[in-house]
Amino acid sequence: MTALHTDLYEIRMAVSYLRRGMTEPATFSLFARDLPHDRGFLVCAGLADCLDFLARFHFDDDELDYLREELGLGERDLEALARLCFEGDVWAVPEGHVVFANEPLIEVTASLPQAQLVETTLLNFLTFQTAVATKAARCRIAADGAELVDFSARRTHGVHAAFAAARVSAMVGFAGTSHVAAASRFGLRPVGTMAHSYVEAFPSERAAFRAFAEDFPDATVFLVDTYDTVNGVRTAADLAKTLHLPSARVGVRLDSGDLDALSRVTRKILDDAGLPEARIMASGGLDEHAILRLVRAGAPIDSYGVGTKMGVSADAPSLDTAYKLVEYAGRPVMKTSPGKATLPGAKQVYRNGSAGPDVLTRRAEQAPHDSLPLLVPVMRAGERVGSGHEFADARARFEHDLAWLPEAAKRLRVPEPVGVQRSAQLDELAERTAKAFRSREAAGWR
Amino acid sequence: MTALHTDLYEIRMAVSYLRRGMTEPATFSLFARDLPHDRGFLVCAGLADCLDFLARFHFDDDELDYLREELGLGERDLEALARLCFEGDVWAVPEGHVVFANEPLIEVTASLPQAQLVETTLLNFLTFQTAVATKAARCRIAADGAELVDFSARRTHGVHAAFAAARVSAMVGFAGTSHVAAASRFGLRPVGTMAHSYVEAFPSERAAFRAFAEDFPDATVFLVDTYDTVNGVRTAADLAKTLHLPSARVGVRLDSGDLDALSRVTRKILDDAGLPEARIMASGGLDEHAILRLVRAGAPIDSYGVGTKMGVSADAPSLDTAYKLVEYAGRPVMKTSPGKATLPGAKQVYRNGSAGPDVLTRRAEQAPHDSLPLLVPVMRAGERVGSGHEFADARARFEHDLAWLPEAAKRLRVPEPVGVQRSAQLDELAERTAKAFRSREAAGWR
């Protein structure tokens, strides 16, 4: 990850700013304009990667050579780019918090070229990780206490996404991940059973199950649907008895078919075999809606393996995020294009302990009664500051916010987000900024 | 990218295979079970990353330490894993080719533990890159000759995905990418204009446009919708005249509003200003359907910047891919679970020069009349083989297949895929394999 991981226009603009000495402080605000369909909230994620990126931000020599040759930048431009690192201040909503549309996830104040150049990467990390964390949180809500594990590594959008999906799903309460490298990197619980190929590589299902039980007596989860699911469960139960496997260490995984009906048949077979503690895991194209149906039906499933649909946030694989200049050189600025207008100035979001709406204010405004600010300083002059950067802190914030979130906002279909009100001071600033802009334009400023 | 980038169950299975000496050759076949909704074809992509991964496949010491401590693997297991590298044979459909459901994208033949361990990563790379390439190809079809550029870097799922989206969109005919690092790595044309923040950082739109034209006289594309689009176009046209910018080097970008209506007004303003060669670029939430509407309406748009919806393949962010064992130790194998049954044995796909259906055969079958094989050897004993690995080759294959693809398969809504027939020999093998399995089960093989 280098400074070249950016859109060309960021570099063009930065070069233009540098040539003109436009290096006064600029504040950019990153937020989602709208919540995706059927989303009542977002779970902030991606900040850790953003801070790593900002801390290391620079152009290396190869990159500068590329810019010289490909874009025809001059030596003075390149010298100015070579000197750049990120020396700005960052306020952000820490990972794990729940937010709504129009609430800033991050605000960057830095010399205009610096703040401009980091746009693409900040948008990328925060958008996709927040989308995936939100999807995983919806699975958590649907599961109603049942165990969830991340099975998404095989169909996320590449390596970086696989790591992030494992991490953010754990942040919202998933118990583990199948992705070994992610488990290793983030200290998560690695989870895994067997694949159909294992069963097929042996001359019979029974031979495969026996071998697996011998090799992994402490965690023996049999995949039972390679040939005939009910037969598979009977074979697993019979072997568990024959080999005297401890009931609590045995499980079966159902990966196809009518999971509700099959889980009931499976439970009965396991109970009848004297394996009341043997666990039933379900997987195969699950998302929050499928989990909710199974939970509501009372299917006796102990653990859900959630893969692709969570890992790509299948029904909302992106968010309508924006990174907008809100102040430059002490002057508040705003876009006025219809449907995409923005609010000027650095901001804060205050949340009341009750379930009232959040309040979007100017950064320096006094806190409304009984309210706490969501945005906190996370970087000052390019150095990380503050506490709460630990993964455990992010988990705790999500648990807190999940408990706070009203049922109507947690609904998986047609939810009612808590919403956000603008403070009078913010409205006043917006009006004043628009008016100042109109009078400059009317005066034909050139 | 290391061997630990895999699901835990792959490691459990590999360990079990190694302990039991189950290291005879296994063949796995990777294919999409179905095409996503409204897809009439898929464009193969991701093979280059897969071959890089296979060529470097190994567990390093830190990873083995993790497996020792976290999974409690014994020293003999770890020694066996430490010795593993990928020494197998790979056949694949080269990147850029069009394929359909049930046609293998890749087939791996290797010692069972090796072939098993690479599953997660091969599925990941081929699934998401093929999904994104297919989405980009649909934009290409919709654009009907208009220029397309990739603007997706800010909302792809992470860094790896951003690089891949730039590359695979270029493979299917995109003219360039905004992502500078990807342009640099893959030799693509970097494309970029200015953002709204640039316009806002200056005291007026006119001042911003003037500065940009001074700094980038060779490629001056003005973003005109920060405040009022039509005013913005007038300002751009006026400045182009005032500064004597060459008409062919000037453009405007429309990023919001009714792009059809605005592009017509814009064209007229530019033409009236004596700028007939000035180009109009459109962007902002575009996908193949939006592009098709604009093209069909005759909107005078020269270039489309396609971002998020292409880069995440928004309506089909994953494919229903599977990596299935089809042969082990010379014995064809298959899954028989309802709805997820698989076909045994190594395969080939033959395509007829006319638009008849493809034929799915056993690997060693003779080619049907006038047909060419889609799968070719790309790795032998762990070493890359064959030609056609160059990016230009992938582009040429896509152009060829796009010309071959029937109109009905290219339709963006309710398409008719070309489809694939099974050869008699393959059907016969499937029947024989199922029968052999049933008789082993009936004999109560233990």
UniProtKB/TrEMBL annotation, chains A, B:
The keyword Phosphoprotein applies. Keywords: Glycosyltransferase, Ligase, Phosphoprotein, Pyridine nucleotide biosynthesis, Transferase. Its EC number is 6.3.4.21. Residues 147-337 form the Nicotinate/nicotinamide phosphoribosyltransferase domain. GO terms for biological process: NAD+ biosynthetic process via the salvage pathway. Residues 4-126 form the Nicotinate phosphoribosyltransferase N-terminal domain. GO terms for cellular component: cytosol. The keyword Glycosyltransferase applies. CDD domains: NAPRTase_A. It holds the Pfam family NAPRTase. It catalyses: 5-phospho-alpha-D-ribose 1-diphosphate + nicotinate + ATP + H2O = nicotinate beta-D-ribonucleotide + ADP + phosphate + diphosphate. It comes from the Bacteria. Transiently phosphorylated on a His residue during the reaction cycle. Phosphorylation strongly increases the affinity for substrates and increases the rate of nicotinate D-ribonucleotide production. Dephosphorylation regenerates the low-affinity form of the enzyme, leading to product release. One of its GO terms (molecular function) is nicotinamide phosphoribosyltransferase activity. Pathway: Cofactor biosynthesis; NAD(+) biosynthesis; nicotinate D-ribonucleotide from nicotinate: step 1/1. PANTHER family: NICOTINATE PHOSPHORIBOSYLTRANSFERASE. NCBIfam families: NAPRTase_put (TIGR01513), PRK09243.1-3 (NF006696), PRK12484.1 (NF009131). Belongs to the NAPRTase family. This is Nicotinate phosphoribosyltransferase. The lineage of its organism: Bacteria, Bacillati, Actinomycetota, Actinomycetes, Pseudonocardiales.
